[in-house]
Specification:
Shape: globular
Strand content: 5-15%
Structural class: alpha/beta
Number of strands: 9
Number of helices: 11
Helix content: 40-55%
Strand order of the largest sheet: 3-2-1-4-5-6-8
Largest sheet: 7 strands, parallel
Length: 296
Amino acid sequence: MFQVRLLGMKILVIGGTGNVGSEVLKQLVEGRNVELRALVRKEGASLPKGVEPFIGDLLDPVSVEKALTGVDKLYLLNAVTPDELTQGLIAYGIARKLNIKHIVYHSVFKVEAFKNVPHFASKLAIESALRQFDVPFTVIRPNYFFQNDATLKPVLLGAGIYPMPLGNPGISAVDVRDIAEAAAIALTNAGREGNTYNLNGPEVLSGAKMAEVWSAALGEKIQYTGEDMDAFEEQMRQKAPSWSAFDIRMMFQGYLERGFIAGDGDLETLTALLGHAPRRYQDFAKETVDEWQRTK
């Protein structure tokens, strides 16, 4: 698909040190001829060469306004926190005040169908603000990230289980690299304003299917542990705050109750946007296992 590239602009990336935001910065650095600034909380944050670090905090409107001064476009990805809505609305309100030319907002797939999930509800409210006022915007709505499962190394290798309660019918998980590329295209190519893009992978992945994929990648049997949501929430509380464990539990419970599968036309739209087919989970799993073997 032909892309009209916009040149000579400055972009502020919020969330640039996270799993997705760091990939967005990589995409923007690689040959897109833009100036880049990243909002970070402290000195010494790891950023690609050429990205200007700007110290600030989304709960400090003064620092956010300084970071946005002189910027043409904003990529807004704020972390899942108890005050996610406040953080997002502060950034959006200041962007509007400064007449930012375009915001690309990182939301979540099927956000309107998961109003009982705290971080989905926050994103839906921020989307509503974007649509109500007059700042040009693009919304990207990713599915579950492939890369979330890279954190499962201890249980996959140790216990031989796939623990995420995906059940049936499953999800259309997506690679973070495809999300980042879509965001970079929306930020640097003309004609993306006003669009909402559902970002889904090409396969429907149930819990049992995920276990099969990891079995093939690892060369040993991986068992799917099922959908005991009380036990899952308790496990989440061992490594995350209680509020976060509840939030995650409600998200996965929503997957089971309402599904999280790509809609008609989603894959075709994303393929046209990227100029290539979305990456496959099987390939991600193989790459991940290869990396584990190289670094063990």
